């Protein structure tokens, strides 16, 4: 079940969230972030934040927010996080599909991931299968916790039927 997040949900997911940012393998988030700072960043700053719940356990979460403002406000940005025990079970796929439907309902025309760590091959493959394209590479943009400096990708997907206004 995917539903909007509560404070209790985030606190229940915090051990996973904290472990992910401390590993410094996928998210450009300060590894010393406190629970309160994490709640503000993940749940309060975005437009919407959701959890993926299974058998009463929060096993994933994602946020959706505008990627830019003004003339680029039609593009949104999302971030997804899944617990270790739920990896490989389609949770990220389901959250991404949910986020794309929600994005179009909210009036967004495209979705952009600003910094997908290139060594996160599972995520890169999934996003490509869901129709995202790598539109740019940021050389040495991420200081990986184990590998040192690695590249990041900008990935993009147009979400609605294409229209051109001349």
Automatic annotation (TrEMBL):
Under the heading InterPro entries, the entry gives: Acyl_CoA_acyltransferase, GNAT_dom, Mito_N-acetyltransferase
Give the domain of life.
Answer: Bacteria
Q: Which UniProt keywords apply?
A: Transferase
All copies of domain N-acetyltransferase, residue ranges: 1-160
In alphabetical order, the GO MF annotations are: acyltransferase activity, transferring groups other than amino-acyl groups
Q: Which residues form a coiled coil?
A: none
Q: Which Pfam families match?
A: Acetyltransf_1
Q: What is this protein's name?
A: GNAT family N-acetyltransferase
What organism does the record attribute this protein to? Answer: Ferrimonas aestuarii
């Amino acid at each position: 079940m995917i539903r909007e997040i509560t404070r209790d949900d985030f606190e229940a997911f915090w051990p996973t969230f904290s472990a992910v940012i401390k590993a410094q393998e996928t998210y450009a988030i300060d590894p010393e972030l406190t629970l309160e700072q994490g709640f503000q960043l993940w749940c309060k700053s975005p437009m919407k934040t959701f959890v993926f719940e299974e058998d009463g356990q929060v096993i994933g979460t994602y946020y959706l927010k505008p990627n830019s403002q003004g003339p680029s406000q039609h593009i949104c940005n999302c971030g997804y996080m899944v617990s270790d025990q739920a990896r490989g079970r389609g949770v990220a796929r389901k959250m991404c599909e949910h986020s794309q439907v929600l994005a179009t309902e909210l009036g967004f025309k495209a979705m952009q991931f600003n910094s997908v760590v290139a060594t996160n091959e599972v995520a890169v493959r999934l996003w490509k299968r869901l129709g995202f394209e790598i539109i740019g590479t940021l050389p040495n943009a991420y200081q990986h916790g184990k590998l040192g400096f690695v590249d990041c990708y900008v990935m993009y997907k147009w979400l609605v039927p294409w229209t051109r206004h001349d």
